[in-house]
């Protein structure tokens, strides 16, 4: 009993913090989602499903988010894994710290500045101008889904690299040597040893990037040029410009529900994959 009280005292600050900062705002948004827009904007108490019935009006924002967020996560994984593998397994300790610092250097500047830099790179005087020099004309990159995809991969790549690097850095190199001594090719060793043991880092990196991308609004606003909307952009419009708090709350709760279902399915998949990996190792 004394141990339970002690645990309760230790957990109370974190519990109160989560209740005030996470649960209560969600409860407020949930209540607002059943209300109506006032004559001058804002929220009027009501009990109606009208806001949820209007969700198809924001289908484009949901579609862009549900397509580009997973694609951005996958693209970041495909780029980050070889980089993390090189830093953890192949790179000499002499250069490892320097290269890790270079990976995190972009976080030293605002994502707003980095996004504006991509406007120049993808704009008419950037890559399209270089392509015109070699005879490829009328290439438009800025204000397209491709530009948004490039921006989100660049912006969130470090968040994918570091969890994978930590998993690979903890890898017992003797396992790789044993696999090689038993006659496995480097590719087979990677597929059967390295990749399964790095699953926790991959799972963590994908989770971090995907959740943040689902709520992203700055990069689509800058590199999408008002033509590629995410749900985050819709929420900014509904709460700050249209002042339709009821509809904005319904959109927000729908996004939360989609993320909850997606993350739950993803975690079950990762848990099952981890169980299969343990079974294989026991065999």
UniProtKB/TrEMBL annotation:
Pfam families: BPD_transp_1 (PF00528). Keywords: Cell membrane, Membrane, Transmembrane, Transmembrane helix, Transport. InterPro entries: MetI-like (IPR000515), MetI-like_sf (IPR035906). The keyword NADP does not apply. SUPFAM superfamilies: MetI-like. Residues 62-268 form the ABC transmembrane type-1 domain. The keyword Cell membrane applies. The chain crosses the membrane at residues 9-34, 66-87, 99-121, 141-166, 197-225, 245-267. It is a multi-pass membrane protein. It is found in: Cell membrane. Belongs to the binding-protein-dependent transport system permease family. CysTW subfamily. This is ABC transporter permease. It comes from Ruegeria marisflavi.
